[in-house]
């Protein structure tokens, strides 16, 4: 078929299609009803909210698919350099509102639905979260996908389609219990199953020497084969036709599976065995920042890496015929070390399968990878025991050894025989358990190593990766994290969105968050401030209603809504917050009745999940409930203080909690939070921060000024010194008193809380709760003082949002694209 014929055929098909789908309310209604009848298979006269949601989603999906096709046809035709963003975690949350907003047809849909007797917002609530990730790292991946699409970059995301996302947290008697998140139960309209896009992924087996043209070569003879199937998730950009792809892999048994067993007649057993292979992509590991060397996790990583790279190489070969061009056409980004087996896998493909010379392959490979690390301390870095790796992926282990021995040779030439340093920099860690250091591998092979904030990057250079920094200073960069204002303002805070557009005189801030600085021009306008306060109040109402349904606690809208929501970790110091609340309660109890009138009423809100095996984190959750029980049932305290724990904190809960917060807390011991991205979402929503000088907070201060937030605690430089003092560390009396109350069983469960109390006892207090407590209380007092002057508070709130533009993931992505990936926008014409 010639080009002319193909074009004629395409035009005829397009005319049969009747052009693109139409977006006027009448056409939308027709489409929704069509899906009610033919997709959901319900009667047009009888369908409930969930069925309406399904039909609605399918009509949105159709529109996404059109743009997805056009975008990819355009990329294929223009052959730009592409970015492949490799991440084992994506926290996408819900898709409906986000898609409709990014497609720009929100109003049309609202009207179409109301004519059918439905309300858009009610249907949107029917959707469950896609929770294929743990916390900040995973939500940051999702924000970056939104920005890549919006800024027209030719990018693909790759991930795993876990059948069980992050566990659901339920609270029984104050204790966390985990329940499976079988999120695909009711179908998922946002994915497109590609039954024909499949790859075989191999495991186990042996490596054998073969002779190839008189030369000895190693060849892997695998022992088990699993098939990877692609599921595509369209990611629409805002204000552009570009719709990029997030391709997630699911495991299914290969058709060649266990032929032996079929022949020997063990038919039933072989079918049962197939289910084992399906289980590879079954469940997301719920621990962030701890790596346990589990075989299934390693299998997941390799399954993901192998399928993604086969797909990427296939696409490359379709358009290009020489691997020398790879670095000009392909950028591979490692989101943390989780996908770093990619390095060994691509070497295996180029050397073993494509038969490139090792050195030639290595030179190519070193030009295509970039790496972002989200970890601060060396102990948190990922390591894989060589025993495990060698049995699952014998050829890859050989490749890793060879990469390492080449690197060691080169290194000796550069630094001489400094054996301590050589062993620190080696990819292979000798020791009780010999293992592969995935971070060292990633650094060695990547052209750029990114930190996630300025402070984080300084720590990487001076401590965590000092040896590597001294060898290759030019590799080390930082690109401060960001969040997308589309999700975190436009979707989650529509009233603020309208207010911003009104006073900025434009909606352009939705694609250019720097324009938010324009709010500074209106900060002295009382009319503006009044509207600003009204928006906050509206969001507080929404949150208060939610709190009442979830926990039965009635809260006053006049109280300060004080929020700490994030994964539960000792370093994030939720315990500091709870101790502060106990102290506040204790003060109220001991206060003269007349003085109580001057007290600022507070609603303290805490939410977050503890990793299932993390005992101390689980005790923190229990303590929070125990303290809440006492305070909330103390009639004497009334509205002056309430404490509520919000169960099952996730993306959609965040969308409601964040806009309703007056104050948010970010309490990590300085030097432990690589960046932190929650703070950026609160900032955009005009919520004041109470925070330590850690991670990206340092840069937030540069943008909004130290007068507009409540800063406290030891600085990074002081932390090491304080730790050295150990038992001689000064701790305020109030801290000792609060600790004593918990120890003495004031909140019950004395024995259960003992080990928790021990973690903050003088001499044992690694995260320095005791020594930061005094300054924490001062910051809290400053927040109270500011809150009683509503005009002052509102100004601080406006100036927070006005300074949040730098923390848009659009800025993050533009920096990565220009500096690290060297890719250009590629906008599909309308
Ligand atoms: O990544 C976020 C940062 O804002 C946070 O400061 C950082 O703590 C977070 C293993 C992790 N670091 N490491 C992880 C997640 C899952 C896992 O299996 C580690 N998450 C972070 C975004 O940069």
TrEMBL record:
GO terms for cellular component: cytoplasm. The modification N6-(pyridoxal phosphate)lysine is found at residue 681. One of its GO terms (molecular function) is pyridoxal phosphate binding. Its cofactor is pyridoxal 5'-phosphate. It is an enzyme of class 2 (transferase). The keyword Transferase applies. The lineage of its organism: Eukaryota, Viridiplantae, Streptophyta, Embryophyta, Tracheophyta. Allosteric enzyme that catalyzes the rate-limiting step in glycogen catabolism, the phosphorolytic cleavage of glycogen to produce glucose-1-phosphate, and plays a central role in maintaining cellular and organismal glucose homeostasis. Keywords: Allosteric enzyme, Carbohydrate metabolism, Glycosyltransferase, Pyridoxal phosphate, Transferase. It comes from the Eukaryota. It catalyses: [(1->4)-alpha-D-glucosyl](n) + phosphate = [(1->4)-alpha-D-glucosyl](n-1) + alpha-D-glucose 1-phosphate. It comes from Cicer arietinum (Chickpea). Its EC number is 2.4.1.1. Belongs to the glycogen phosphorylase family. This is Alpha-1,4 glucan phosphorylase. The keyword Transmembrane does not apply. GO terms for biological process: glycogen catabolic process.
């Amino acid at each position: 078929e010639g080009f002319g014929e193909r074009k004629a055929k395409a035009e005829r098909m397009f005319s049969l299609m009747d052009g693109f789908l139409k977006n006027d309310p009448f056409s939308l209604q027709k489409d929704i009803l069509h899906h009610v009848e033919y997709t959901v298979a319900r009667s047009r006269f009888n369908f409930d909210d969930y069925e309406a949601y399904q039909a609605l989603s399918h009509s949105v999906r159709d529109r996404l698919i059109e743009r997805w096709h056009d975008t990819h046809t355009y990329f294929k035709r223009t052959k730009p350099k592409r970015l492949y963003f490799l991440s084992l975690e994506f926290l996408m949350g819900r898709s409906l509102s986000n898609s409709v907003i990014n497609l720009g047809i929100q109003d049309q849909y609202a009207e179409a639905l109301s004519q059918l007797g439905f309300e858009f917002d009610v249907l949107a609530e029917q959707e469950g979260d896609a929770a294929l990730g743990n916390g900040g790292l995973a939500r940051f991946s999702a924000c970056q996908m939104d920005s890549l699409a919006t800024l027209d970059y030719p990018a693909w995301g790759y991930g795993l389609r876990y059948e069980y996302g992050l566990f659901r947290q339920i609270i029984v008697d104050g204790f966390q219990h985990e329940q499976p998140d079988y999120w695909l139960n009711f179908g998922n309209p946002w994915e497109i199953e590609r039954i024909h896009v499949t790859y075989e992924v191999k495991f186990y087996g042996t490596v054998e020497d073969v002779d190839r043209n008189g030369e000895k070569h190693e060849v892997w003879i695998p022992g088990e084969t699993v098939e990877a199937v692609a599921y595509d998730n369209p990611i629409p950009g805002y204000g552009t036709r570009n719709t990029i792809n997030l391709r997630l892999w699911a495991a299914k048994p290969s058709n060649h599976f266990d032929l032996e067993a079929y022949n020997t007649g063990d038919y039933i057993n072989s079918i049962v065995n197939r289910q084992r292979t399906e289980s590879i992509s079954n469940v997301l590991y719920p621990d962030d920042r701890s790596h346990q060397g589990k075989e299934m996790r390693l299998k997941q990583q390799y399954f993901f890496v192998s399928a993604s790279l086969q797909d990427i190489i296939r696409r490359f070969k379709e358009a290009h015929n020489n691997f020398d061009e790879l670095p000009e056409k392909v950028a591979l980004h490692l989101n943390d070390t989780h996908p770093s087996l990619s390095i060994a896998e691509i070497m295996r493909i180029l050397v073993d399968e494509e038969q490139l010379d090792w050195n030639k392959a290595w030179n190519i490979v070193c030009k295509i990878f970039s790496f972002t690390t989200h970890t601060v301390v060396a102990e948190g870095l990922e390591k894989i025991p060589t025993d495990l790796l060698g049995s699952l992926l014998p050829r890859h282990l050989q490749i890793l050894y060879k990469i390492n021995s080449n690197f060691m040779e080169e290194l000796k030439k550069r630094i001489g025989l400094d054996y301590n340093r050589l062993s620190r920099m080696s990819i292979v860690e000798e020791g009780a358990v010999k293992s592969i250091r995935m971070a060292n591998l990633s650094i060695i092979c990547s052209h750029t190593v990114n930190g996630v904030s300025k402070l984080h990057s300084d720590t990487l250079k001076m401590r965590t990766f000092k040896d590597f920094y001294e060898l290759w200073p030019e590799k080390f960069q930082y690109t401060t994290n960001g969040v997308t204002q589309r999700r975190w303002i436009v979707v989650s805070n529509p009233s603020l969105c309208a207010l911003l557009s009104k006073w900025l005189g434009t909606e352009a801030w939705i694609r250019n968050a720097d324009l938010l600085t324009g709010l500074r021009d209106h900060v002295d306008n009382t009319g503006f401030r009044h509207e600003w306060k009204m928006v906050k109040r509206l969001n507080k109402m929404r949150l208060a209603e939610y709190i009442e349904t979830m926990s039965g606690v009635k809260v006053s809208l006049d109280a300060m809504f004080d929020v700490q929501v994030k994964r539960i970790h000792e370093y994030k110091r939720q315990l500091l917050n709870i101790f502060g609340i106990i102290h506040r309660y204790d003060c109220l109890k001991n206060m003269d009745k007349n003085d109580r009138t001057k007290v600022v009423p507070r609603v303290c809100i805490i939410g977050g999940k503890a990793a299932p095996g993390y005992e101390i984190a689980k005790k923190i959750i229990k303590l929070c409930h125990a303290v809440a029980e006492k305070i909330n049932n103390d009639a004497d305290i009334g509205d002056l203080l309430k404490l509520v724990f919000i169960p099952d904190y996730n993306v959609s809960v965040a969308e409601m909690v964040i806009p309703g917060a007056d104050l948010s807390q970010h309490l990590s011991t300085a030097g432990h939070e690589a960046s932190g991205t929650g703070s950026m979402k609160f900032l955009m929503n005009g919520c004041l921060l109470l925070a330590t000088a850690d991670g990206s907070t340092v840069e937030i201060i540069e943008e909004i000024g130290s007068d507009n937030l409540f800063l406290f605690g030891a600085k990074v430089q002081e932390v090491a010194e304080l730790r050295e003092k150990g038992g001689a560390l000064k701790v305020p009396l109030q801290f000792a008193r609060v600790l004593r109350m918990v120890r003495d069983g004031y909140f019950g469960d004395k024995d259960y809380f003992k080990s928790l109390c021990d973690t903050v006892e003088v001499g044992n207090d690694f995260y320095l709760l005791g020594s930061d407590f005094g300054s924490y209380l001062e910051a809290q007092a400053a927040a109270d003082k500011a809150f009683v002057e509503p005009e002052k508070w509102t100004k601080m709130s406006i100036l927070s949002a006005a300074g949040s533009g730098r923390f848009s993931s659009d800025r993050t992505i533009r920096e990565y694209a220009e500096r690290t990936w060297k890719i250009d926008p590629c906008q599909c014409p309308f």
